[in-house]
Amino acid sequence: MNDDGFPAERLFNQGYSYTYDDVIFLPGYIDFPVDDVNLSTKLSRNIPLSIPCVASPMDTVTETSMAVAMAALGGIGIVHYNNTISQQASIIRTAKSHKFPFSADLIFASPSDSIHSADEFANSPCIFVTESGNKQSKLLGHVSKSDWKNLSNKEARISAYMNTSPVTLPSSYDFNDVAGYMASKKLDFVALVNEEEENGEVVNLVTSADMERIKGLPKLGLPSLGEDGKFLVGAAVGTRESDKERLEHLVKEGINAVVIDSSQGNSLYQINMIKHVKHTYPHLDVIGGNVVTNYQAENLIKQGVDGLRVGMGSGSICTTQEVCAVGRGQATAVYKVSSIAEQHGIPVIADGGISNSGHIVKALSLGASTVMMGSFLAGSNEAPGTYEYKNGLRVKKYRGMGSLEAMTKGSDARYLGDTAKLKIAQGVVGSVADKGSILKFIPYTMQAVKQGFQDLGASSLQSAHHLLKSGKLRLEVRTGAAQVEGGVHGLVGYEKRYF
């Protein structure tokens, strides 16, 4: 008889709300090497992924660069909707046009403009010249930073000195095609254009330095591709009437899944939106949430959702539990909702509370199919925003969608507060240290997750879920002292590096 620890069913039915740090798994039996662990999974009923990673629909986390990189790694990014319909549609269109994991900040000007300072180039080696000065109009040429520096008259209009024969390649070219072409022509940079657009819209700029950097990154696994061969990209929408128009534009751009984004998903508004999506776009996977209870989950499953997003107040920048006294510990929430969703074949996304690879192991082993990450990805090269220095540390802004700053741009609808006279914040604005590229640290993180699964004796997510359901997976609650002991302790100082 196995009297070590408790099965999850017993542990999570005692009336306690547990977080990931509150619980620990007991080791299982290892009869396979770590590289045999298979992390392939499903985002929703009809969307497979090769790694269980989802980028959160936050305006400081997921736009073009993040969506492209996550799809290249085998996960998926969900593009936020704290913007205009045209802006969100443009992000989706650009991300879907990429073939490899790199997305540059593009700078545009019109022929009648002048370039007065090198700062206008930012970090780009060139400025693209289009008819109207924006990316949607016809490309006429470009101005390289080196050519501009050699100008004697820097007040001249761009039309007087721009290069009218810019080198471009189709955005359908893969990494090896672009790298080979640049090497053969000895080019410092090349523009990639969307050949499906009438004006040949510029969607990316690739430099020789980028080529070398990508070559030095860990080898990528299977990318997330749709039937059309394009990267999988998801998008979030709200529950307002105007979101139906937004969704129509996003579907035209080819989104593969839609997340109905709400902090408390068990509402008439979300149910009506789910019905609209299932009726209007029957082939589009719809993910409902957020939910943390069986009752909430069952209500949305009845409406036909293809996936559920679990978490309320567990994010590092979320204050919902503090402000509203409503929510649930994330470990308990994931287990409870997954137990119900599994009976209906509905994958669960564990949203929030992910600070390290161990948390990912816990979320997946407690029944989730994927983990949604915000702070874990914020501060990376691929996250929106620019780096700045605070107390000598290189950081990027990271804010909750419930913060007053984000709510002024429209995210208050997520908290059903867009019609309220008084805005109450359920999140904060902060900053996150520079993490480098997710193309580097996500592969290492996934390797750590594989090691965790090996220690559990689970060779796949499906195997872990079977161990959970059968009661063979055993857990214990950690005391405060046990949590301290399980982390770094007793040192005067240390540097934590995982790879």
Can you characterise this structure?
The chain has 499 residues and is α/β, with parallel strands linked by helices. Helix content is 30%, strand content 18%. The protein folds into 2 domains: 361 residues, Alpha-Beta Barrel (TIM Barrel); 101 residues, CBS-domain (Roll). It contains 16 helices and 22 strands. The strands form 6 sheets. It has an 8-stranded parallel β-barrel, surrounded by 7 helices. Helix 3 packs parallel to helix 7 and helix 9 runs parallel beside helix 11. The protein starts with 5 loop residues before the first strand and ends in a 14-residue tail after the last helix. The model has no long low-confidence stretch (mean pLDDT 88). This is Inosine-5'-monophosphate dehydrogenase. Homotetramer. Its main location: cytoplasm.
Portion in beta strands: 15-25%
Question: Domains counted in the coordinates: how many?
Answer: 2
- Here the CATH topology of the largest domain equals TIM Barrel
Number of helices: 16
Total E-strand runs = 22
CATH class of the largest domain: Alpha Beta
Low-confidence stretches: none
What is the helical fraction, as a range of percent?
25-40%
CATH superfamily descriptor of the largest domain: Aldolase class I
Radius of gyration: 24 Å
Strand order of the largest sheet: 5-6-13-14-15-16-17-18
Distance between the amino and carboxyl termini: 40 Å
- Structural class, by secondary structure, is alpha/beta
- Based on Cα principal axes, name the global outline: globular
**Main sheet makeup:** 8 strands, parallel, barrel
The average pLDDT value, as a whole number, equals 88
| CATH architectural label of the largest domain | Alpha-Beta Barrel
Keywords: CBS domain, Cytoplasm, GMP biosynthesis, Metal-binding, NAD, Oxidoreductase, Potassium, Purine biosynthesis
Active site: 318, 414
Domain CBS: 162-224
Binding site for K(+): 313, 315, 318
